[in-house]
């Protein structure tokens, strides 16, 4: 994926920061409600994203001009990973993980985990694409991984302290690097949250 398309994808991905912001401003219940609403919306729309036949029927019923829908579909296809074109979108994995993290873990853990998974992933991709010179077989770079790690430290240190931030950022970086299944947008948040909780953050 080109840097331009990666930037578009990460700009969309960054909307995930609205979740910890709402948690900070309005509390746990509001954050859970917010995430639940969007999860329901995403699940309702997912068959239309994947099913061309359904999209055609909707276009015909709503009378949407062909050129408009074609432009939207090109944009979506352009920023989608290959696996997302045939299966569940990353936004659904992210939303389910965010819901679990908010519900199951303490405030600082939830806010930190979601923020690092969102911003750290974006920084890793952007720095890796722009400045990655030392690459691994999976296409990831030392520079991108370091960008993730530093981002994690900056976010987590004020929330949980330097020692815990170092540990969780390292775990998050490793999970992001290997892209653990079912999707790194799911596994990254949970890996950081579980690490902090097991390490004693309450």
TrEMBL record:
Organism of this sequence: Pyrococcus horikoshii
- Source species, domain of life: Archaea
| UniProt keywords, alphabetically | Membrane, Nucleotidyltransferase, Transferase, Transmembrane, Transmembrane helix
**Protein name according to UniProt:** Phosphatidate cytidylyltransferase
Regions that span the bilayer = 20-45, 88-105, 111-128, 148-175
GO MF, one term, reads:
nucleotidyltransferase activity
InterPro entries assigned to the protein according to its UniProt record, in alphabetical order: Dgk1-like
């Amino acid at each position: 994926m080109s840097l331009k398309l990666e930037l578009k994808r990460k700009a969309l991905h960054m909307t995930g920061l609205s979740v910890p912001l709402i948690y900070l401003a309005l509390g746990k219940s509001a954050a859970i409600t917010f995430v639940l609403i969007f999860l329901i919306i995403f699940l309702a729309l997912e068959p239309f994203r994947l099913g061309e036949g359904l999209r055609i029927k909707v276009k015909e019923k709503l009378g949407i001009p062909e050129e408009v829908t074609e432009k939207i579909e090109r944009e979506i296809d352009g920023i989608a990973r290959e696996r997302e074109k045939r299966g569940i979108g990353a936004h659904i994995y992210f939303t389910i993980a965010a819901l679990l993290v908010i519900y199951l873990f303490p405030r600082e853990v939830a806010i930190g985990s979601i923020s690092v998974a969102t911003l750290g992933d974006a920084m890793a991709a952007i720095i890796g694409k722009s400045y990655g010179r030392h690459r691994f077989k999976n296409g990831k770079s030392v520079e991108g991984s370091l960008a993730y790690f530093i981002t994690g430290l900056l976010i987590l240190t004020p929330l949980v302290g330097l020692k815990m931030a170092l540990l969780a950022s390292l775990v998050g970086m490793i999970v992001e690097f290997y892209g653990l299944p079912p999707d790194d947008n799911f596994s990254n948040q949970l890996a950081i949250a579980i690490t902090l909780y097991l390490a004693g953050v309450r």
